[in-house]
């Protein structure tokens, strides 16, 4: 199939933008202060050598360190370049999956436009330079949402790899999509795929070495407010009340209320997979105690899902509402902010979740991209032979 002129121009434009972005003085891999890829690399090296990835600032899972060990075959500078290239590929994949779930026709120019917007978004752009894994996690979670209806085991596999990297952003989504599958079909293949792959990765890490288990047993991981930059509701409440225990109590209360409301909304409204995933992604960022502005790239799906629906349902207020939502999305998550202003990021998932709950749902859960063929009138046997459309439609499939 030949590419349309707009599609070809969009692909060329995105390629030039990626090249320009990568060549900016502050965008070379490893340039950001406190580069996370260096932490990942050191953890993978420690895990390969001693079986213990912890001790160098690494707070991820041992399974994630295991997956990163191939990067240690090259030097840290080369590994940073490879990681950045994979992240940019993930950015394009995230854009394509997001538009597919949102029901946008499969064309190159919308994918390129969304990828360009995410690349220039300050929160995500800084995360890419920082060497973070948020873009890859968002891509895996969104692709899993896209295939959850047609291939639940594949969705479970993708979510398992995403949860291995950032479990606090993905576990609620995995549980929600698994519950949605069971409600619709009484199937457990998504949950089974998730559990089997997650357990297999943990078993592989344990077979390599058990020393990391002893380390975690002696020093359980805690939510760490790195340099006063964590965006978490518990940190916000703790700072507001000057009491850490009160902050955790309020987070637990907020989490219980949000999860209860989410469950009631899901049970009564029967949202589509895209609606459900969008709401869960926003809720995850509100109740996790450990998140940063670069993690807000997981909100690409809610933003794209909500945009056209607000436009269709809000009448003369559509344009102001969309402009306001866009401004909040662009400016609220402030990267590398080390004061209380960073908590403005929490406005974005709260606004998205409220909007999703206020918008009308589409009825029984199904993928928006899945279109059923229109009913055909009965036809007689034609000159080409074979049964009519009507008789074929009633055959068992």
Question: What would your notes on this structure say?
Answer:
This protein is mostly helical. It has one domain (13-362). Helix content is 65%, strand content 0%. The chain contains 18 helices and no strands. The chain has helices at residues 5-22, 36-50, 62-68, 76-101, 108-120, 122-130, 134-147, 152-165, 167-185, 189-208, 211-218, 233-241, 244-269, 273-287, 300-313, 318-331, 347-358, 389-393. Helix 8 (152-165) runs antiparallel to helix 9 and helix 9 runs antiparallel to helix 10 (189-208). The longest helix is centred in the N-terminal third of the chain and has 26 residues, at 76-101. It is globular, with a radius of gyration of 23 Å. Mean pLDDT is 86; it is low at 363-374 and 379-397.
How would you summarize the topology of this molecule?
Elements: H1 5-22, H2 36-50, H3 62-68, H4 76-101, H5 108-120, H6 122-130, H7 134-147, H8 152-165, H9 167-185, H10 189-208, H11 211-218, H12 233-241, H13 244-269, H14 273-287, H15 300-313, H16 318-331, H17 347-358, H18 389-393
Helix pairs in contact: 1-5, 2-3, 4-5, 4-7, 4-15, 7-8, 8-9, 8-10, 9-10, 9-14, 12-13, 13-14, 14-15, 14-17, 15-16
